[in-house]
Amino acid sequence: MDVWGWIQTNLLDSTLLMVFLIAVLGYLVGSIKICGLDLGTAGILLVALVFGHLGVSVPGLVRDMGLVCFVTAVGFIAGPKFFRNFKKNAKSYILLGVIIIAAGALSCVAIVKLIGVPADLAVGMLSGALTSTPGLAAAIEATGSDAAAVGYGIAYPFGVISVVLFVQLVPRILHTDMDKERAQYEAAADVEVRHKHKDLFYCDSMGFFSFACAIVGGMILAKIKIPLPGGASFSLGTSGGPLIAGLLLGHMNSIGRLSVSVPKNVLETMREFGLALFLLGAGTQAGAGFVEILQEQGILLFIYGAIMALVPMFVGFIVAFRILKLSTFNSLGSICGGMTSTPALGTLIRVTETDDVASAYAATYPIALVMVVLVSQFMGIYL
Q1: Distance between CA 76 and CA 86 in Å, rounded?
Q2: Are strands 226-227 and 233-234 parallel, antiparallel or unpaired?
Q3: Are 330 and 300 in contact (CB under 8 A)?
Q4: What is the mean pLDDT of residues 355-377?
């Protein structure tokens, strides 16, 4: 057996080894700074794409496990302040969720009508640009074509990386005083959270009981399907269900005398661990056949995918910051939610050094999630 054969048999086929090797290399790539910018955890995506192209596959369970851990942790962290923040800016968040997805949809329609890209491929690209797996599922169901999945794979990497870089660039371009902005933002979010019961029963000191309860409840919510016109249906899915459950338990903190809280350091660990698993799972999946897609469809498709990612992002930020007069942190958090970008939220929390931006993400995300599914269904049927 030659060296490459031995590597394929003993190394590439070892799922556990590949998962952590991709994570190691991904964090190394993500730590590289160019002009002061870095990909952070999103560096794992680039490495995963290469490994996926080389034939490494990671079970879908790894990606789903990562996604569930990430969004549940985000829900818990945002929960204590989410409902106050949402009540204060509800109209803005709803409007932004609609506008961001509508802008992406219009750019998709323009590319189909003016350039002639096949509709099923373009709708899949829109889902990839918005990093929305539920949107992809809706597109495949509406078009009945595997081309939607191909389009998703083309646009997904840029959809992730563009928002990650955007949330780092905007504060620099606007010359934002991060310390001042953070202080004002946290003050407006009413950082102090008071709990009703002091004498609570804790099932475990690490809060894994509460975390698991949120995931169980979230997955039950994820299975509920709401009928839509045309015979389609909508569900919160793996990303939306646990997020809502985490928000609720994070807000409640306790049920009677039973604590359902999770220590913040545990939540931060689960958030980062989940994000890493999600990116490496999604990246290896998108990387399979990546070069073949490029050779077959042409490099211009990547440019079209980039347009579908950039247009809604810039339109959304301009509306949020200039028209709705939201703060920089609120605007960027809303963009992450409106673009349904899980990795960008992780980067934004790191850049702003406050978990409170997760509230804006969590408020805009469900609106955008509903919109992208509806838009994918509509365009898949009528384009």
Answers
A1: 15
A2: antiparallel
A3: no
A4: 81
Q: Which residues of 170-207 are buried (b: 16+ CB within 10 A; e: fewer)?
A: bbeeeebeeeebbeebbebbeeeeeeeeeebeeeeeeb
Which residues are CB-neighbours of 129 under 8 A, at least 6 positions away? 104, 155, 156, 158, 159, 305, 306, 308, 309, 312
Position 322 pLDDT exceeds 60? yes
Using pLDDT thresholds of 50, 70 and 90, give the confidence band for residue 27.
Answer: very high
Distance CA 69, CA 48 (A): 19
Q: Which H helix or E strand runs over 41?
A: none
Could you tell me the pLDDT band of residue 145, with boundaries at 50, 70 and 90? low
CA–CA dist 299, 217 (Å, integer): 43
Please state the rounded mean pLDDT for residues 273-282: 85
Question: H or E element: which one contains 255?
Answer: strand 254-255
Q: Which residues of 70-92 are buried (b: 16+ CB within 10 A; e: fewer)?
A: bbbbbbbbbbbbbbebbebbeeb
114-118, 231-235, 317-321, 330-334: the lowest-pLDDT one: 231-235
Residues 6+ apart with CB under 8 A from 16: none
Residues with Cβ within 8 Å of 289's Cβ and at least 6 positions away in sequence, in order, are 53, 153
pLDDT at 45: 78
> Do 151 and 135 contact (CB within 8 A), yes or no?
no
SS (H, E, C) 86-144: HHHHHHHHHHHHHHHHHHHHHHHHHHHHHHCCCHHHHHHHHHHHCCCHHHHHHHHHHHC
| pLDDT, position 10 | 61
User: For residue 297, what are the CA distances in angstroms to 127, 277, 289, 304, 315?
Assistant: 18, 29, 12, 12, 28
